[in-house]
Amino acid sequence: MERCPAPHLTGADRSVAANPCILSAFDVACPAGPGIDPRGSRSIRNLASRPDLPIRSRLEYYAAVAVVSVLGAIPRSAALTAGRLVAWITFQLSKRLRAIAEHNLKLALPELSQAGREQIVRGVFANLGRLLAEFCQLPKLDARNVSECVIYDGYENFAKALDRGQGVLFLTAHYGAWELCPYAHALYGHPLKFVVRPIDNPLVDQLVNRYRMGSGNQIIEKKNSLREILVTLKRGEAVGILIDQNTFREAGVFAPFFNIPACTTTSLATIALRTGAAVVPGVLIWDAALRKHRLRFEPPVPLLQTGNKQEDILANTTRYNQVLEELVRKHPEQWLWVHRRWKTRPEGVEELY
Containing domain of residue 157, as a range? Predict the structure, then answer.
């Protein structure tokens, strides 16, 4: 593993340097990868040395580093096995998350039996364990070996959309090993930018973002992201936007998702209407038979334009939710059912959670 330059530690840094395990944590935050910038490691050191940083944030960071260190150092097959073990333990201990997932499935797929719901919930946790393992293994991937882990499915849909020259908006979700999805696409020669919400713990946020950008991708922070998205699309490049999370009323519209009004971000539809960029659904699907992931691109979603901006935003967002629903129905265990997707309700409608 490539190591970061040894830091010159003074003042508050000495309290960190006193523990060699902590120093190795900083080193792990500089994984080997095509796009890794060693300056990011120094940024994490500087942040960790701040006296006002809560102890909890430091402990969470060191725990995260321990996990990525171990699962990143062992062979991928062993990491996937470890991920399954972590998933099993988490399933046993996370009563609250299990309850959310089961409640969501009752709302969205009421025809399922209790046994059917439990099987999907177990699959959701198994998928999260696989995501964890694949994320920790990201620095080992490069253009030469990425096909051993990820293969394309429907690449022509992306290629045709890109050839239009107006940029591509990826309609994507917390589906499969979603962190691996843009990483692999970049290694295949198609780096992109994707919109993320910063993780509450700034140390963990920087660590995760360094892994995310290791294949040449760039992140766009969700807050005040519009300008950078527009510039990227104008250059004919691609931007990924996840639209499957609950949002606030003022930031979304209520579009059906499994026949339930779901407060959904308007950003994807708004930008597509403004720029004419192609909207291409793209998710990573685990293929158990192949023991690989399929990076699946669906055909571009036709843009509905009537001239009424608000109606067009709602109509297009509704279609985007329908596309995601179709994908989730095919592999329900690979979607993030543990999220309270229908938490925000229309005015006057009773709460679901």
Answer: 76-334
